[in-house]
Amino acid sequence: MKLKHALIAAFTGVCVATPVLADLVFPALTYRTGAYAVSGIPQADGYSDYFTMLNERDGGIGGVPIKVVECETQYNTEKGVECYEKTKGLGALVYQPMSTGITYQLIPKASADGIPIHSMGYGRTSAANGKVFPYVFNYPANYWNGASAVVNHILELNNGNIKGKKIALVYHNSGYGKEPIRTLEELAKKHGFELSLLPVDHPGQEQKSQWLQIRRERPDYVTMWGWGVMNQVAIQEAANIRFPMEKFIGIWWSGSENDVIPAGDAADGYKALALHAPGMDFPLFDDMKKHVYDKGKAAGAGDQIGTILYNRGMFQAILAAEAVKVAQKMSGKKDIGPAEMRVGMENLKVDQAMFSSLGLPNFAPNLEVSCENHGGAGLVAVQQWNASAKTWSLVSDFKPTDKDVINQLIAEDSSAYAKENNITPKCM
Amino acid sequence: MSAEFYFGIEVFLNGLMAGVMYSLVALGFVLIFKASGIFNYAQGIMALFAAMTLVGFQEGQIPFAHLFNAMFGTEMHHFGWHMNAFFAIILALGVMVLFAILVEKLILKHLVNQEPIILFMATIGLAYFMEGFGDLMWGSNVKKLDVGIPQGGNFWIEENTAFLGGENFYGFYLDTLDIYATVIATILVVSLVLFSQYTKTGRALRAVADDHQAALSVGISLRTIWVIVWAIAGFVALVAGIMWGAKSGVQFSLSLIALKALPVLMLGGFTSIPGAIIGGLIIGVGEKMFEFLIGAPLLGGATENWFAYMVALVFLVFRPQGLFGEKIIERV
Questions:
Q1: β-pairing, A248-250 with A221-225?
Q2: How far is A253 from chain B, CA to nearest CA, in Å?
Q3: Most exposed of A35, A158, A262, B163 (fewest Cβ within 10 Å)?
Q4: How confident is the model over A340-354, as pLDDT tens digits?
């Protein structure tokens, strides 16, 4: 009987003590299964592998071990919320929902619980206003920066004059896909181009109507806000109607290897926006190889290393780790909680010297976050696919976007949110 | 005639082609439902699994390589060959026959005389199992499928019809892949009809479909028939997987093509092979024409999915058994 009680006590102790409170806990709302697993797996692997490397090489951050707690969402909003509820009590420092739908649901919950959210390059765009959304960050760029970056690129290609040009937006018929519409409409007024909107229903396996319409209307450029199978089908359909690939520009979520490989050589020249550089030509990967890959500690099957979405997951982890360092320095304690993490994120500054010291020279543009600006500088580059070499390469620098239009829209949308939710905008 | 008129015809023709693609998926459902009364929830996953297996053989991928690598620390991925598409299709077909035998032995055999809902739930379980099993066997990355069928707008048709609608008309756009799919689907349906009408096994299949008990009483083996039907459904799934996989690459979303088959089945009936074809054509043309005439210009687009289900629901109200389905009369 005593043995039984001892075993129960020991088991309870293990359960209660997991994870150790001293760990820096990063819940990862991943999707390794379901319709969007193809895109979810590389991101999840990159996010996890970077933290594994920090644990192996540095013993964590500031000497405190990191614990990544994965929870499978299948890119399903309800499951994402369940994952949040299940993991928030484990000492979660920051949530990366990896889905715009989940982000929207978590904004009020996480704000009430005092846990920051980092929706990097997705989520609610107007959350860039930190005075209204103190717990939500969407640096280094948001969808409206993306919309402006597409238009800027087209302006560059046309010597600054796109009056009378036709631009078509092919978008996932969801909250995510609709995000850039308002910005594009404003930019259409400003630059005099004609915008046509072509929604594609989930999952996007059948897009014949949309591409027949594009063939009829003959737009000068097509831009795409797609995800999952929608991207692959759209690129194939564009190739089928012989739409010039160099005039087809996707958002950064429509620009991974998975999106272009199924179309084969026909995808050559396709462009997409970029938040960071592609490839593995960075010293950091030497450390990753030594401390993670060679030790057999890579997440998943280890076959996604160096892909665009793997690098993006790694970038998310890098920015989270750098924010922890800022938080540790500002609070004077190593074992930080979500409140300190939020302060760390709000005071995050990453410049090229820092990227170089991390083993990532010229990987991404400088970043500076503040209370007023949780969205960063909004610098975006353009990358292009080379089908024969099967590689992406940057074809532009990271360039600024139209702040006049974007900041106005952010102010309008965030103040409407503040009014609806009785929030008095202020810095915390 | 104006260019708009010819664009309408183009949409109509593309709707027919899209309908054939839907019918290919619906056929698999019909075959199994007709012979065993089971609504096979796993039909979409079967198409995915068949296509994954085909690409795996073509590329010389080692099955379960990731699992072995994780367990034994090895680094094996491929055998190092590239198999001819024809042989790969034959081997993939062999795997689908093996799959049919296993389904019968491990699932159906134990569920004889159970309620249809139990059998339906068994196929739900099968679908989830196959989803994970397929990923484990072949990996979850997007795979390019190339069996030599060309894709893209057909140049010949475009060039020879461009004169019809003036300078704003660029000739009819018809995807070569869709044309192939139409020919293949036609051959498939004719073969299935001939098989079921003029062969001994085909007659046995129809006997089982009409009345299980009566078929058993004259010595027809229900278990053998089920294996044959599931194997044929596996073959149809392979064809559907090839056609749809060539468009989007082989990936999990391929299993969602089953969603496109549901309104076709509701319209054409669950027990009729011609119904699956006619239903597919009506849905394909209906949704594309509605999008062209009303959806895109007046409603903001993306009307195809709900329109297909709306048409199917209207049919359900007035003709619950579908266009060609059997009317079930149960007397108390």
A1: parallel
A2: 16
A3: B163
A4: 999 999 999 999 999
